[in-house]
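Final report, Chapter 2: Outcomes

The project's central promise was a pipeline that accepts a single protein chain and returns its three-dimensional structure in a standardized token representation, suitable for archiving and comparison. That pipeline is now operational. To close this chapter, we reproduce one record exactly as it appears in the project archive, with the input sequence first and the structure output second.
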Amino acid sequence: MDKCVTCKYNTNHPICRSHCSGCDGKSKYEPCGLKVYQTIAVDFDGTLCESKFPEIGEPKPLVIEYIKRQAAAGAHIILYTCRENGTKRNLLDEALQFCAQQGIELYAVNENPDNTFPEEYGIDFGGRKVYADIYIDDKAVNVSDLEAAMSEVLQGEHREEDSYGFYP
């Protein structure tokens, strides 16, 4: 497939055609309809590809396209995965190779070099949670969705208590 030399998208992609003329791949590129984040932490298994651990599953094209558009708009993409090397196979290297084959340019892996909190607060995070603006993970739950669901559950329990005088 031909790639645009400036924004690295397929030249037949409608967003590329309308936005890449004379761009540097980042400053003039505007992904239509997407909020652009500064830093995105993205999981691997079940997120960028189907979950087949320790094997690598089929790519998830829509997620990959989203990540590539974010990167083209200037977002730092951090691969946030439990895969590691030093086991029977170099599972992390396999994930990195997959990302490269998909055209995903990674800013970092399992760390955020831009995180200034350790210096600001005089603490050593020692590799704990990667700092990002959003986390994309197949196992994640959106807190707002969870709160809304629990609110409905609790309202239903209160209605049943009012009707029958006890909880089921």
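Archive annotation: Residues 143-164 form the longest helix (22 residues).
This record, like all others produced under the grant, will remain available to the consortium after the project formally closes.
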